[in-house]
Design brief:
200 residues; alpha+beta; four-stranded antiparallel β-sheet; 5 helices; 8 strands; 31% strand
């Protein structure tokens, strides 16, 4: 795969979807059907993203613009005397969400974030039962008024886990849950393992 970059934004989204075929299979299969793609094509896109040594190693927004075309949103500001430039592309696979890259002047790496567009109503979960697959982003999960949360594992790509102290909708008692994320999109929520200790 070396030398075969992910050259389109479509391929990037398809690579995101590949992991979700395992973590949220019902939703992923429906989306594959909607965009007219297969699991095999998603697997190829995923390999190009991680192993081709191109798009996922870009260090400037200009490189993404050259590969993906002009961003849907672009802004900049000065932070601590350095220019911070932001560029975001709307996710057509997940309408209402956007992937945004941050480039800081004189910094050798880009930072990625997942945002909800201002035109898309944010989720308003009132119980754990509302935390269904793809219902919220990483940031929205931590902002939801259900209880305290904390990071458990992962770096915001595949298999990131957070914990939540909330009321069990079936028993009415407080318990700890694990929330699983791929690409900062919620995939599933389940009771935390008995061995898990909050805060450690």
């Amino acid at each position: 795969m070396t030398g075969e970059p992910v050259t389109s934004f479509y391929d990037f989204q398809l690579s995101m979807l590949h992991a979700m075929c395992a973590s949220a299979p019902e939703q992923a299969e429906a989306l594959l059907a909607r965009v007219g793609a297969t699991r095999g094509e998603a697997a190829v896109a995923q390999k190009r993203w991680w192993y081709a040594g191109a798009t996922n190693n870009f260090t400037t927004i200009a490189e993404y613009v050259a590969a993906w075309g002009p961003p849907d949103t672009e802004r900049s500001r000065v932070e601590n005397g350095r220019e911070a430039r932001f560029a975001g592309w709307n996710l057509t696979f997940w309408p209402g969400l956007q992937v945004e890259w941050l480039q800081i002047q004189d910094h050798s790496a880009l930072f990625r974030n997942l945002l909800r567009l201002p035109t898309s109503p944010p989720p308003s979960p009132t119980s754990v039962a509302d935390l269904t697959p793809w219902s919220c982003t990483w940031a929205e999960f931590h902002q939801a008024p259900l209880g305290p949360t904390e990071h458990v594992d992962g770096f915001g790509d595949i298999g990131t886990v957070a914990s939540l102290k909330a009321t069990d909708p079936e028993t009415g008692r407080d318990r700890i849950y694990w929330a699983h994320f791929d690409w900062c999109i919620l995939q599933s929520v389940e009771p935390a393992p008995d061995a898990y200790v909050w805060g450690q």
